[in-house]
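> example.struct
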């Protein structure tokens, strides 16, 4: 096993067992393995492969049900926010989510404040932040936590606010041929396929 694979294997455990994002998990793995801070980190594709392997080895009995619960919760939120053309992304979309994972929805809005107004009208408290978007630009994030009834746990929900025009090209596959997000119908299909 080379250094990148070793870091990825260690980081995968942090992703699954602690719910860390890929970046923080790689940094934690460096420390745990006693490697210098400037050590080259594995790419996300390698880390995702290690996460899937870890899930198959240690979480095969629990993770599928946790993923189904999170996808159903995401779908309910997508239906609730349908006016903003929601797309599911992240671990819940890719199928690597566990009960520690948050739900990430990308909203494509005609008016950037409209999603915020919708949350206010629903009487929901949320925090406003920002993150890098899928094109590397800064985007606003509305974050809240809600109980997932199926898991009886509080789950973080992050709404990334994009301009409506950003939707063009958002469903193109990446360099490995994978689509990085799915709309309401795509998530419904995933849930239906899982139930079959």
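> example.seq
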């Amino acid at each position: 096993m080379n250094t990148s694979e070793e870091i990825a294997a260690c980081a995968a455990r942090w992703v699954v067992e602690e719910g860390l994002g890929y970046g923080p998990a790689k940094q934690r793995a460096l420390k745990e393995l006693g490697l210098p801070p400037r050590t080259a980190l594995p790419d996300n594709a390698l880390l995702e492969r290690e996460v899937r392997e870890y899930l198959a080895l240690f979480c095969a009995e629990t993770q599928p049900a946790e993923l189904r619960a999170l996808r159903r919760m995401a779908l309910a939120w997508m239906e609730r926010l349908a006016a903003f053309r929601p797309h599911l992304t992240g671990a819940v979309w890719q199928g690597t989510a566990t009960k520690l994972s948050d739900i990430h929805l990308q909203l494509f809005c005609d008016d950037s404040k409209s999603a915020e107004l919708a949350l206010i009208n629903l009487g929901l408290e949320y925090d406003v932040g920002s993150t890098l978007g899928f094109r590397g630009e800064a985007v606003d994030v509305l974050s809240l936590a809600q109980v997932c009834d199926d898991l009886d746990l509080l789950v973080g929900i992050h709404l990334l606010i994009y301009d409506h025009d950003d939707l063009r090209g958002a469903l193109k596959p990446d360099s490995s041929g994978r689509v990085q997000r799915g709309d309401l119908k795509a998530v419904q299909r995933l849930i239906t396929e899982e139930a079959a």
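> remarks
The two ends are 38 Å apart (CA to CA).
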